[in-house]
């Protein structure tokens, strides 16, 4: 009876006894099936809709009601009921229909035999409809997806009981073998009929198996959108839809030849080299080219791709079309590194290339992003770069720029950044309007069996969280793969949503070419050794079909082999490795043709007083009329106005000055992170929300100037790894933009450490990639416990590449030369003006370096942490070191101790010095730029106070913070001729104590040490 009670799934618009089936009230498309309800037409889809009782649905009176509704108007019932009642009339004996009323006919022929006749016919129709739905939902579980035929792609050999794999399973639906030749009405949620509305059950099952159980398995019924589900059904179920012309088949064969022979050539020439070849999934190359062709035809002219290392060289050669000699020369062990460094291994590098797409005769730009061995780390980076290109081109719907991400099966299932990236896919400030994901499914991860590598049936199940359709396809059926790629490209064009292609394949060799896979997968690799290559199988197929001749095939193979041999000969002329040839994000208008900065100087970062006042007034007002803001925000704005009136600024105003002035100069500013619109500490309020009108908000920063650049400020998802990667990718697109990511608390970058370690810190050394991303990391020991105190400055400083034992000597601008040589800049500003200066300097420099800023918490509102407009006046600039300005600085010969420090602790030291009345005896100097270390300025201060004790004071524990970084550099500055003492907290395992009393006692202890002139207890550096 369950099939009978599923009636709502096949009825639409049927009116019975004053009640009506309303299709709009039926949930569509989802795996759980439609909601089955009776609806009062006067109430529509209201909360008073009642579920259909099974007793009503199964009673003969119900059938009679349906029949009377049909007599009134055949359109009152679903087509299946219409067919049923017509068949009843047609099957009556001659003359009977004329002798008896239709209602009497029904009573005599149907109701008198109920349930033996009417109920059986109805149930059989509903059973067939349920059967069709079962194949749509679960047909992929029995699809022939594994080219090896030894594993189940879904890790389960169980066949769902509702799929008709054997005749005896007909009984599940109350059917038997005698029903196979009966004709049944098809529901409107299937396209298997083609132009027919009825089919014999035998043919229905055959067509369902052809559509859903062949070399393509589709997961889509979980999508909660009826139109999208119907679109996919039409692409999968329509008989004969997967057709290719002979020309298309020849193109596919030629691409498969290139893919296969490229790997064969590398294997012959460099048999002992790691290259992470594509053997076993050679179909990836024609698959990508099909996606690009189809997308190009739809208007896409820029494709940004990311992938792991398996198959990267093949993709570079045959998709991006990098010169083969440039690839082959990378295998020369005698190749010398160019000036810019040794770069990365060849299977990590990227490429940017603009060429003609021969299938569409349109220009297309292809970028393959460089990626380390952290396989999925590149995912959000690709998305960020794609978003940036769309933004700068005004491509609001992703009709010109798109992304393709390639994955390995084990990494796709196992690495959390995949999930984080998917969850950015439809967020307004992060969407790229649909990404095509291609999974190279080796059915193995390194040496790990998939049955112990994931808990989900498929490696692609993570995509279900965003309702992305998933196409599983047997990679040894090239035509099935090409068809799926076409459909995926059309899906992205039509719906601007993510889609996944799962290429179920195998890995012919081990993890790399030197690895022995038989140690751990003996049965799999015995089968692989017997496995016929896909090129051989497909070429034999086309030759048998008469599409190509054997001679034509062999000529095509010989043609590509000759290309490879000529490139190999040419590659021997290369003597120097130029990583710039592999650059994935070139900035041709920013650098010279040789890739050098166009100058080596930085203009002052100060501003006109008029500009400061204008920005300040906008920052302290609401640009829109009749806009109701929160009283607390009103107080903040009034406070800002008062500061502007007094020519002063706090931290929030200093940031406003930096961003606003850059917007005036045409620099796009983008700030993203968790709660950045308001600010974690409720100090920023760059987005004002109307308190009475939902979704009405105002961004004053976008109302500064008539022709200003846009300001983007966006709260992110609760992700660090994915979002920081996204912003890094965004910053790659253009040097003329300020891209900032702010952590909610500084230590939250812990979960984004992979992006910092693999991309930001070494990016230029590995990939000659300049990047100006800014990290804002709130930092400070304020008794908030170990989780919200330290931004871990020691990690950033440890990865800074300046030499601690060498005092740098530069001609020209020492500051700019030092910045040019570093891998990133680390600062801890103590004044709003200096914060403004360093942010502006980030853009005014003639090159780009990542900037790490340890931002304050309590200093955001500290009364002493203020700056005058004079500190931002025309001609001023960032102060790498702020010297002492107390009375001690007027008489340096009398100073007994000089305390060097950085950040918030300065204000605590200054307060304690004043309390103890030591302002003539002790000087306090602030290092604002910690890395690269300001050797020149520190030396000048040390020489100024030649007879004073030198102390380094920090609030962090001794084994953390800046101590290990500054220690050897101070010794270099004083040439080991003067002792430098340490003052601060003792070593500890946690960044801070969770006890407020302990925190204060620690602070008092090291303050007493810092100012104890008679009995100094510090430890020597």
From TrEMBL:
Where is it mostly found?
mitochondrion
Q: Which GO terms describe its cellular component?
A: mitochondrion; nucleus; oxoglutarate dehydrogenase complex
**Which keywords does the record carry?**
Calcium, Glycolysis, Isopeptide bond, Magnesium, Metal-binding, Mitochondrion, Nucleus, Oxidoreductase, Thiamine pyrophosphate, Transit peptide, Ubl conjugation
Keyword Nucleotide-binding part of the UniProt annotation: no
Look up the EC number in the record and give it: 1.2.4.2
Where in the cell does this protein reside?
Answer: Mitochondrion; Nucleus
Q: Which cofactor does it need?
A: Mg(2+); thiamine diphosphate
The record's listing under InterPro entries reads: 2-oxogl_dehyd_N (IPR032106), 2oxoglutarate_DH_E1 (IPR011603), DH_E1 (IPR001017), KGD_C_sf (IPR042179), ODO-1/KGD_C (IPR031717), THDP-binding (IPR029061), Transketolase-like_Pyr-bd (IPR005475)
- Alphabetical GO biological process terms: glycolytic process; tricarboxylic acid cycle
Q: Where is the Transketolase-like pyrimidine-binding domain?
A: 649-862
A single GO molecular-function term is: metal ion binding
Catalytic reaction list: N(6)-[(R)-lipoyl]-L-lysyl-[protein] + 2-oxoglutarate + H(+) = N(6)-[(R)-S(8)-succinyldihydrolipoyl]-L-lysyl-[protein] + CO2
Q: What class of enzyme is it?
A: oxidoreductase
Q: What's a Pfam family in this record?
A: E1_dh
Instruction: Write out the similarity annotation.
Output: Belongs to the alpha-ketoglutarate dehydrogenase family.
| Protein name, as recorded | 2-oxoglutarate dehydrogenase complex component E1
Q: From which source organism is this entry?
A: Sparus aurata
What high-level taxonomic lineage is stated for the organism? Eukaryota, Metazoa, Chordata, Craniata, Vertebrata
Q: What is the gene called?
A: OGDHL
